[in-house]
Amino acid sequence: MNKFNKKYSENGFLIEKNYFNKDDVNKITNEIQNLKKNVDLYYDKKGKLRRIERLYDKGESLNLANSKIMDLLKKIFETSFTIFKDKFNAKPPGGEGFFAHYDGIFKFRNEKNELKKGWYEYGNKFVNVLIALDQFDETNGTIEIAKADEGNFDELFLNTKKNGTPDILPEIEKKLKFNPMNLNVGDVVIFNNTCPHRSKKNNSNSDRKSLYYTYTPLELGSKYDEYFNDKLKSKNTTSKSLSGDL
Ligand SMILES: O=C(O)CCC(=O)C(=O)O
């Protein structure tokens, strides 16, 4: 087991400092600012851009970032990964945080009205990668991550609010130790989807931008198109954000 893998196995998360340099990040940010076509844009109630999805391959620097992340995952896990879902989170000043949640542990109804097990319809190992495009600290609602929970979908589902979101019950959240991540521009956090995580509102005067990608083992094939097609048809209208803004 390599040193990264050992650390990841202990906690379910690790930080890779300075994986992207400032120049890389500037190019990525510029590409994101010019994205208009073939991506999904989400605005908050005040009309501010909150999130962009389906963007990882919509620019040269974005494509390069995804390749560099896949290289990093291969180094850590000694197996190849492919992208499962992708988003850019803007978190502008005043932007809402997220309740404590897992990723992918929720149920949704598909177009045939069948109840489905969140991301576990597409696999059973999910690695999140957050790329800090701005500094992350306690003033701008940095991400806080707790050690990965053990258990399969059904076991972890019991810890959630069971309301179509992966939000964790307050009595479970109270017992967890969350680690606020202090990140510099270009730092990358790699964490298991079963790590409870949350963030507070952005109380600073500037954006707190990030790329938030999720990867699955390549051996299962790409589930990216299937996931986004199902998401479009899903009858689940609840969102994970504190405000419920979509
Ligand atoms: O950006 C954040 O503060 C957390 C994002 C998050 O947890 C999510 O999108 O699942």
Keyphrases for this structure?
24% helix, Jelly Rolls, alpha+beta, disordered C terminus, binds 2-oxoglutaric acid, 246 residues, 13 strands, 4-stranded antiparallel beta sheet, 7-stranded antiparallel beta sheet, single chain
Topology:
Layout: H1 3-11, E1 13-16, H2 22-33, E2 40-43, E3 49-53, H3 60-77, E4 81-89, E5 98-101, E6 107-109, E7 115-117, E8 127-132, E9 143-145, H4 153-157, H5 170-173, E10 179-180, E11 188-192, E12 197-199, E13 210-217, H6 224-233
Antiparallel strand pairs: 1-11, 2-3, 3-4, 4-13, 5-12, 6-7, 8-11, 8-13, 9-10, 9-12
Bound molecules: 2-oxoglutaric acid (AKG).
2-oxoglutaric acid binds next to strand 12 and strand 13.
Structure description:
By secondary structure, the protein is of the alpha+beta class. The chain has a single domain, classed as Jelly Rolls (Sandwich). The protein is about 25% helix and about 25% strand. The protein is built from six helices and 13 strands. The protein has a seven-stranded antiparallel sheet with strand order 1-11-8-13-4-3-2. A four-stranded antiparallel sheet has the order 5-12-9-10, with no helix packed on it. Strand 6 (about 105-110) and strand 7 form a beta hairpin. Helix 2 (about 20-35) packs across helix 3. The radius of gyration is 17 Å and the shape is globular. The model is unreliable at about 240-245 (pLDDT under 50). The site of 2-oxoglutaric acid has 10 residues, from strand 12 and strand 13. 2-oxoglutaric acid binds near residues 91, 103, 210 and 240.
